[in-house]
């Protein structure tokens, strides 16, 4: 269900071939979506790994290859996406499509849609706490959602092709404005990360050996890359601070119920939580 | 590695044949640790399910069967363990061994070691957010830890046999005083549950459809049984309130770093969290 085998592009250039960029490359290769996949990285080692994994055909340390691309995917850490967009804008073909994989969208879309007329912001909701092209998977996006964040300025033709591209990689497509995306994602992704970071930090070292699946699951994403997440959190701080406020209120309600031995209140909260989690479905 | 096939007991009575009691029954049967496994439940339906699953040989709605038992396992929800211990104490053979599977130990051990001389408190650190004997597994305890909480009053002979019993079910044994157990477990089990309950409650309904593996994993245990967890939280409230305090401080540190755009502080915290989570090892 996840492969259609239809060539969409001649040359795709992926800038940043880590977990996400590498998985995009592997996904394109597996489904033969492009004749050629070119990877760009600042590190020779990364290019070699990406080639060895079969995620790219050729790799370069500089940006000049973007001039031949039909599709350019900005798959670097979030704090370099805007700069890269600015750098490639004088180099790209006028009809080249550009998309990205940044976890927050408002700042990126605002900056890049001005200078790259065929830019369509994207956030594939797939990933892992494990970094690097060695953890990349051709099917990483299969059965996941990819949020596209078109605006009034977005070219309809570009949107259709970018939608097609992410769909062929296996993702279901969701449209949200950049602002709504950033608000929603602060709750479903960034808040859980902050909670996981805080949780693992609160557990005293002398009790860690007792950790069972409960603590392991709740803190798995605390092993996510620090540098990457620092930048993600900074690019969406307003929404995140709101989400933290809401979370603190939820926590306070449970705390009060425990403190006051209010069995009815506590049971009601836990029942609601259970119901809501069960409605999430699918394990 | 998990089965030794050595009969330890003639008759084992398990009171409460849900996920834990049912898994104990299945584990005993699989490893032939007893000649006969008897289940006691307040519900005929539960007994029928347990029999159908092969977790028990016979089942009863009343407690009289404990009088024939060599080993009695109290595997009911935490708030009925003490009452059950009191009820069976005049019925049991003088040399019958008694253990339990309650998630907090101080109150239970204090109450039961007075009246049941061969009682050894236990907390198997295995389980699931899924309840009931239909989710029971013969190998639920394999490669997990089981905390035993002997005190100065605990019979050495009883401790040895109870240790042997949990080991044969596949668990590694850890000794802790009831007090230390309750303190440690508030961090590694009860705090993650409260955090998961609060987290799922804070996510607005209109963004839940975007939930990816991050939110799913961090909130999996929020689907745990409300009634059960209400009682667990109430029996360890002092330690839990301490743990919540520590957690809130961790959370505040991240919040401040985001608010003040303190990149250095945020990166340091996330790096520490990552390191600590990675040291937990094993996925």
What is the mean pLDDT of chain A? Answer: 95
Total domain units of chain A: 2
Strand order of the largest sheet of chain A: 3-2-1-4-5-6
**Major β-sheet of chain A, in short?**
6 strands, parallel
CATH topology of the largest domain in chain A: Rossmann fold
Secondary-structure topology with pairs:
Two copies of one chain form a homodimer.
Chain A: E1 9-15, H1 19-31, E2 34-40, H2 44-53, E3 58-60, E4 71-74, H3 78-88, E5 97-100, H4 106-115, E6 119-120, E7 122-124, E8 145-148, H5 156-168, E9 172-175, H6 178-202, H7 213-219, H8 226-234, H9 237-259, H10 263-280
Parallel strand pairs in A: 1-2, 1-4, 2-3, 4-5, 5-6, 8-9
Antiparallel strand pairs in A: 7-8
Task: Write a structural description.
Two copies of one chain form a homodimer. With 283 residues, chain A is an alpha/beta fold. Chain A has two domains: 9-176, NAD(P)-binding Rossmann-like Domain (Rossmann fold); 181-280, 6-phosphogluconate dehydrogenase C-terminal fold, CATH 1.10.3660. Chain A has helices at residues 19-31, 44-53, 78-88, 106-115, 156-168, 178-202, 213-219, 226-234, 237-259, 263-280; strands at residues 9-15, 34-40, 58-60, 71-74, 97-100, 119-120, 122-124, 145-148, 172-175. The first copy, chain A, has a six-stranded parallel sheet with strand order 3-2-1-4-5-6, sandwiched between helices. In chain A, strands 7-8-9 form a three-stranded mixed sheet, covered by helices on one side. In chain A, strand 1, helix 1 (19-31) and strand 2 form a beta-alpha-beta unit. In chain A, helix 3 packs parallel to helix 4 (106-115) and helix 9 (237-259) packs across helix 10. At the A-B interface, helix 6, helix 7, helix 8, helix 9 and helix 10 of A face helix 6, helix 7, helix 8, helix 9 and helix 10 of B.
């Amino acid at each position: 269900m996840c492969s259609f085998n239809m060539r969409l592009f001649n040359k795709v250039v992926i800038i940043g071939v880590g977990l996400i960029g590498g998985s995009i490359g592997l996904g394109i290769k597996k489904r033969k979506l492009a004749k050629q996949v070119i990877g760009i990285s600042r590190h020779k080692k990364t290019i070699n790994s990406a080639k060895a994994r079969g995620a790219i055909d050729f790799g370069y340390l500089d940006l000049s290859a973007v001039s031949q691309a039909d599709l350019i995917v900005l798959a670097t850490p979030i704090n370099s996406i805007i700069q890269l967009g600015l750098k490639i804008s004088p180099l790209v073909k006028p009809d080249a499509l550009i998309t990205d994989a940044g976890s927050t969208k408002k700042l990126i879309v605002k900056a890049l849609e001005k200078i790259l007329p065929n830019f369509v912001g994207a956030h594939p909701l797939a990933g892992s706490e494990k970094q690097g092209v060695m953890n990349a998977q051709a099917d990483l996006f299969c059965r996941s959602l990819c949020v596209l964040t078109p605006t009034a300025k977005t070219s309809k033709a570009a949107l259709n092709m970018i939608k097609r591209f992410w769909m062929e990689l296996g993702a279901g497509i969701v449209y949200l404005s950049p602002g709504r995306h950033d608000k929603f994602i602060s709750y479903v992704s960034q808040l859980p990360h902050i909670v996981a970071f805080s949780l693992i930090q609160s557990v005293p070292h002398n009790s860690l050996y007792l950790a069972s699946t409960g603590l392991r699951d709740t803190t798995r994403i605390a092993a996510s890359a620090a540098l990457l997440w620092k930048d993600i959190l900074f690019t969406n701080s307003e929404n995140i601070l709101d989400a933290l406020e809401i979370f603190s209120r939820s926590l306070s309600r449970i705390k009060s119920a425990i403190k006051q031995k209010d069995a009815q209140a506590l049971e009601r909260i836990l029942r609601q939580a259970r119901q809501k989690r069960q409605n999430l479905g699918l394990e």
